[in-house]
């Protein structure tokens, strides 16, 4: 063999040996690509790798992750862009009832983009007007004069000596009674019928980081967490005076623990939205402000890692799963009622698509095997009646606090998610819904126009969108896990 041939063989051997060494390095279980990170580094980066029981519930984190990311999230993504769910009526002009409105956000990304009147389907506007007066309609002169009785059924001649007229004042009082009766089971303040309310296109105003922060935002959350102070003694008030302090949940009753975990879960969910849609850059053009939003893993770590939250961050993330299960259960319980809704916008083809999609989603939700047990709360006899009343008042106060948010876009999504949560709790603890279900009302071929239990369109829109926000948070958690690994 020539010298040139020998050198060629040697080069080939060296190349083969080098390739073999590279392969062995990457395949080595103690080093290279498949190597495990240093344990301390793993703990530091993977604080969001939650596992095990969600506590106070009968399922674990992995079960919810798979169920949500594979079955719920994709369905909600396609459903919530439909006209029925994208237009939400809300009052953003309501004054703060607790402190002077001195913290308005001047940043351009805090503003809500108004939708054109002609873009709102006529069926939504008409239905809103109808729903507003439906409960009190039975007491109006119009209802009395169009009762539909035949002559054979008209007993006026036999009862002619009775004065059956009702004064205008009595009509007004009956309407007030009807509205009061309807609001008795509400867990939040509904303001869509008030002066200043307007329809907002949620697709034009997505929830994301706007730059609203600082003392004003902290005051909002501090006030919300203080609502968890049951009993009013100083020691309890101090414990809940700050949402970042450690809370030993084992030392409080189940109802109070659930209240805290629901609020903490909502807070965690909103923080995840802000981290996943973070303002990464912006243009300086005042006439055409544009921003680039995307995930910010460092901000996520700052808000949730044990090092920056005194060890609380993973607990806050676990509470996200708790509130998810609460709202999931509410949708399952209300499924027979929600299937009877027409989801009317006046766009026939889309309305039919929405009804089919709702039925499919509810069937998937009902198939979940480990639902939250709402009967575990308020089960201590007479004492639970007052506890439930306190619950309602505190959640109503939280919905009032949302009127104090200085950023209009943050206020929009805060009000929507609070109303969605309040609607979920209304469903779970409504005696009227229990009575209607037990009586087989939803199985009847025809239901009266004003049944014993019903939800308004804003409540239904808020319920599904709020659950969509929680579903999105759990989905984004998986994305952050990939980055932090």
UniProtKB/TrEMBL annotation:
The active site is at 407 (nucleophile), 410. The keyword rRNA-binding does not apply. It is found in: Endoplasmic reticulum membrane. It holds the Pfam family ERO1. Keywords: Disulfide bond, Electron transport, Endoplasmic reticulum, FAD, Flavoprotein, Glycoprotein, Membrane, Oxidoreductase, Redox-active center, Signal, Transport. Belongs to the EROs family. This is Ero1-like protein. May function both as a monomer and a homodimer. InterPro entries: Ero1, ERO1-like_sf.
